[in-house]
Design brief:
This protein is of the alpha/beta class and 336 residues long. It has three domains: 45 residues, no CATH class; 243 residues, Alpha-Beta Barrel (TIM Barrel); 41 residues, no CATH class. Helices cover 24% and strands 24% of the residues. It is built from eight helices and 19 strands. The strands form five sheets. The protein has an eight-stranded mixed sheet with strand order 7-8-9-10-11-12-13-14. Strands 1-6-5 form a three-stranded antiparallel sheet, with no helix packed on it.
Length: 336
């Protein structure tokens, strides 16, 4: 156990955690909603520090990030747990584990130095805090990110965005990019299906962008849940109001977890979502979990392909000095 960041002590040995937007007020010996942060005699501790449940080398495109160091490997780590309860979670086997429920398997502790060393030894350009929710293992991510920055490695969050401004501002000096899930454009759906809320996620997208963190957004398009014209159009319009160069990944759903009887997303629905993005003025819309179309990056001026992908592999790269080699239009992103 390690003392947590971003909390304050209250009367009667209670604590207020303001790491994420749940703002849990936790009685002595109780846990926050995440199930991994616990009040111990008036001190908030985290049970996840260093206790990795996953560590893999992934292409950065798998996060997905298409405008951030394309074609490079990213050392991807996670601990167990999450502050959401999404019924369609694709990593529910590890995200829905908790210390509170006694479901997290025992594992040795990995020090931040070891994580950074592993990233270096595997030739990775970045460390991605991913698979579950990096907010709930913030202390590990924060210390690791600081060391990674010293060694010339970039840092990436793949996150539900349900964090406080204080948490974002604290990690911002060391966080280079984030892919944020924007699951709905309906507050009630966030509450009933995810156990969260919409507005903090919208605020996180805006704040990260304002602070200079490269942001891409993913929406998993679930049939009958968030695939209406109104919902998809609302998401597209919001993202365009933040920045029309902000990439939007619209991913195909496959049956998972509590949504295992829901049919996969028809590709026609993704094409409709792509059209919503284009109508809103978004310049970079990427269908995901489909093969054969939608993954290439096309110059917004001349229409030529500047990054060609086959699956998660970059097979052609036509950007030089951050510009399209054909017409010299600047391509937004981080490429070196």
């Amino acid at each position: 156990m390690k003392e947590a960041l971003l909390y304050e002590k209250l009367e009667d040995q209670r604590v207020h955690c303001y790491l994420c937007a749940h703002h849990c007020r936790i009685a002595d010996n109780a846990f926050g909603i995440c199930g991994v942060r616990q009040n111990k005699a008036g001190e908030l501790v985290t049970h996840t520090f260093g206790k990795l449940i996953a560590a893999h080398v992934d292409p950065i495109e798998k996060k997905p990030l298409y405008h951030f160091l394309p074609g490079t490997p990213s050392y991807s780590v996670a601990t167990a747990g999450c502050n959401f309860r999404c019924g369609f979670c694709q990593n529910w086997e590890i995200s829905q584990l908790s210390v509170r429920d006694g479901t997290i398997p025992k594992t040795r502790e990995y020090r931040p130095e070891e994580i950074v060393s592993s990233a270096e030894h595997t030739g990775c350009a970045s460390i991605a805090y991913t698979y579950t929710e990096p907010t709930i293992y913030f202390e590990l991510a924060y210390e690791t990110a600081q060391l990674a920055r010293q060694q010339g490695l970039k840092n990436v969050f793949v996150t539900n965005g349900f964090m406080t401004a204080q948490a974002i501002e604290m990690i911002a000096p060391y966080l280079d990019a984030a892919n944020i899930d924007l699951k709905y454009f309906n507050a009630q759906s966030y509450k009933t299906i995810c156990g969260g809320d919409l507005q903090p996620v919208l605020d996180s997208i805006r704040l990260m962008r304002t602070l200079g963190i490269w942001v891409e957004v993913t929406t998993l398009v679930v049939p009958g849940s968030n695939d209406s014209d109104e919902e998809l159009g609302g998401i597209a319009d919001f993202l365009a109001s933040v920045d029309k160069d902000l990439p939007w990944h619209i991913s195909r759903f496959f049956p998972q977890y509590k949504f295992n009887e829901t049919k996969p997303t028809p590709e026609e629905t993704l094409k409709k979502a792509e059209q919503c993005g284009r109508r809103a003025g978004l310049r970079y819309v990427y269908p995901g979990n489909v093969s054969g179309w939608g993954s290439d990056t096309v110059c917004s001026r001349c229409g030529k392909t500047v990054i060609k992908r086959e699956g998660f592999e970059v097979v052609a790269f036509n950007i030089k000095d951050d510009c399209c080699v054909f017409c010299r239009q600047k391509i937004p992103g981080i490429f070196v």
